[in-house]
Amino acid sequence: MTAEDVEEWLDNWIENELVAPGVDIPGAVQACRTAAQAAGISDAALTRAAGGDLHAHLAEEHAAISNAPDF
Fold first, then answer.
1. Which residue, of 12, 13, 39, 55, is most buried by count of CB atoms within 10 Å of its CB?
2. Please, which residues have CB within 8 angstroms of residue 37's CB and are 6 or more apart in sequence?
3. Which domain holds residue 36?
4. Is residue 71 part of a domain?
5. Dihedral of alpha carbons 28, 33, 37, 40, sign
6. pLDDT value at residue 31
7. Residue 36 maps to a domain
8. Cα dihedral sign for 61, 62, 66, 70?
């Protein structure tokens, strides 16, 4: 997988998994790592796609999703 593929995979995972309110971010980090591994994505590639800190990236994305207006 290219770096772009991994970024797209991560974006899709976030859109599907972080939509519920009150997501446990440490649990989401572990679930994301497990799903990435099953998809053949290394932990290093996943971390790079997240900008170097998967926990912070997921927390930021979850906050953005939680604060998005409902249409």
1. 13
2. 43
3. 3-66
4. no
5. positive
6. 98
7. yes
8. positive
Residue 19 exposure: Cα atoms within 13 Å on the Cβ side: 7
* Mean pLDDT over each residue of the chain, to the nearest integer: 93
Polymer length in residues for the chain: 71
**Whole-prediction pTM:** 0.89
Question: Does the pLDDT at position 13 exceed 90?
Answer: yes
Two tokens, residue 4: 């772009």
Structure tokens belonging to residue 11: 């974006």
Whether 17 and 61 have beta carbons less than 8 Å apart is answered as no
With a cut of 70, say whether residue 69 has pLDDT above it. Answer: no
User: What pLDDT is attached to residue 18?
Assistant: 92
Q: Is residue 52 part of a domain?
A: yes
What's the total number of domains in the chain?
A: 1
User: How far, in whole angstroms, is CA 2 from its chain's centroid?
Assistant: 17
- Radius of gyration over alpha carbons of the chain, in Å? 12
